[in-house]
Amino acid sequence: MAIVSRGFRGRPREGGDRLPPGQYLVEDFPVLSAGPTPRIPLDQWEFAIDTEFGQTHRWSWQELMALPSQTPTVDIHCVTKWSKLDTSWAGVSLDMLFEDVETAAEYALIYSYGGYTTNLPLEDLLDGQAWIAHRFDGEELAPVHGGPARLLVPHLYFWKSAKWVRGIRLLNDDSPGFWETAGYNNYGDPWREQRYEGD
Ligand SMILES: Nc1nc2c(c(=O)[nH]1)N[C@H]1C(S)=C(S)[C@@H](COP(=O)(O)O)O[C@H]1N2
Ligand SMILES: [Mo]
Fold first, then answer.
1. How far, in Å, CA of 152 to CA of 90, rounded?
2. Does the pLDDT of residue 3 top 70, yes or no?
3. What is the pLDDT of residue 15?
4. Total structural domains in the chain?
């Protein structure tokens, strides 16, 4: 049996097989916001999951902080072509938040303080793929990066990782969000380079 390691087939480009097509690496952490940074006092902050049956599950900041956090280290990919490897976060897994949620919905519409929205299939939020992240690189998540808390769903282009996340509406029918309505791809898989509608 021939064992041929990647190195024998030529030097991989920078980032190697962790860099999706068309992306380049950055070391800094760019800020991309479609509007001003909303400021939400923690005693007024809440996160909600609204089901298709009209039920709402809510967490105050205190309640969210009382849940166990995970510390994912993940690569993130912005549709404007920067990628950042090995970003380290702390956050509550969506699997945990969905534990007591009864739903048969297939779609999720994420909504944020400030009005931003983004949509994705519910299954992309589950099975260890998404978090409500509240720390970055060992520090509280900075307001410009979505603090106090943002969605982190690193396997899709980073516009799906809604900053200042406020809730998730579960829907039987898909409903495009802010960038999806503006011509960006409905799903946004960086490995299939799904940047724009029709990709
Ligand atoms: N609420 C909100 N979330 C958002 C955005 C935004 O404008 N508003 N921009 C998205 C885009 S396009 C990207 S690339 C990332 C940028 O996150 P960062 O500013 O922390 O790099 O946030 C995403 N989440
Ligand atoms: Mo982006």
1. 10
2. no
3. 73
4. 1
